[in-house]
Design brief:
9-stranded mixed β-sheet; about 25% helix; globular
Amino acid sequence: MLALTKTLVETWGPPGYEHRIRDLIREEVTALADEIWVDGLGNLICRVGSGGKKVLIAAHMDEIGLMANYQESESGYLRFASLGGLRPDTLNGNRVQFEDGTVGVIAVQEGGGKTLSDFYIDVQGDSGGNATPVGQPAGFMREMQVRGQRVIAKSLDDRIGCVVAIEAMRRLNRQTPNELYFAFTVQEEVGLRGAKTAAQGLHPDIGIAIDVTASGDQIRGQKMLVKLGGGAAIKVHDPGLVVPVAIKNWMIERCQADDIPYQLELLAGGTTDASAIQLADAGVPSGCISIPTRYLHTTSETVDIGDAQACIDLLAGLLANPIEL
């Protein structure tokens, strides 16, 4: 699991430009699915099994990034817009890589730092000029580190969710009484767009998002029940999704039956692909299995390996058994 996680988190792929990560995931899942295709928006969709309940499992491939949108004369400095939820308090000094391979350093104007307009990217070459044209996307750069049970990396949101989905597919080994559609979705960070098209095209009976969530165990941090090392987080509520009681109980009962550590998630800000899936057709009962994560939307997002394993166990357990909801 760690080797796969490292490969995925260190791969470049901001919203709308997920082609590299999609190719890597396709290599991992080709032997694990009965059918694989890419839809019109770029989602990688993998069917496993037929008959029974039709379940859409969504984990998004994209990571937060930025788009160069203005060049400051010939100075080698670029202004930029966000691709996803950038946090200004974490930007200064970070390195980014553009699609053409150019590496830039984010810097802040003196006295600024509260809004994105205070920042610029230094891509200055030896001659002082700018080798990177505007209109290019960029992703953040940072190697993954392991500290005991903790994994520290960029883009664990939501590459660790992709790992959970892939490992659950591996566990199932194409054996399930249900009709499963694992969707590795695009453009979640800019509006849950991939999940919307996937759900509209597949018409599922049930939706499950696999994503990260915040933790409430940081010193002087937000108050929240979820903590690292507490197991899989079963979502109850977030601003975009009120989880149906039957879905929540289904997940809890599976954890209890299989002795999987779990905790309940009530998230005050943010939402997941499940929010989009639930609105497809006449409505799709949807829930979310969440991986507790510290320092979200930074280059040092942190998860516990045991929590990720609990999420794999829960997802595989749910899908390996007949669903009676």
